[in-house]
């Protein structure tokens, strides 16, 4: 999906939700849309400063908070990085496969896994309010490289 298409969808969702998709928020969204895998806030800040020289860490963190609240991105907790979600029309829990070699991140959507996790939490009297499940390992491409080299 093209970055323009993603931006258009995000704008529409913001309009429907009455949220402001400011130019800074859009620029950070575009940077995330052009990144494969996760990226840290300071890396984003360095990229944003190319067009917004006055940008500060707070600028990035406010934009990332907004994009997270809107469901446009997921935070990769284990690496303190952020990842654009390509199915942001509805909020959903994130299940991420993270390659420890090339840093590729694959997002999964398993309803049975989510339901079982919520059931187990409920048995313990725990109400899950947000959820990210991360699995670290080696992706298929890196496994192929290893086998061939």
Automatic annotation (TrEMBL):
Cell compartment(s), UniProt: Cytoplasm
Family annotation (InterPro entries): FUR, Fur_C, WH-like_DNA-bd_sf, WH_DNA-bd_sf
Matching CDD domains: Fur_like
Transmembrane regions listed in the UniProt entry: none
Signal peptide as annotated in the record: none
Keywords for this protein: Cytoplasm, DNA-binding, Iron, Metal-binding, Repressor, Transcription, Transcription regulation, Zinc
Family the UniProt entry places it in: Belongs to the Fur family.
Known partners and oligomeric status: Homodimer.
Protein name listed in UniProt: Ferric uptake regulation protein
High-level lineage: Bacteria, Pseudomonadati, Pseudomonadota, Gammaproteobacteria, Chromatiales
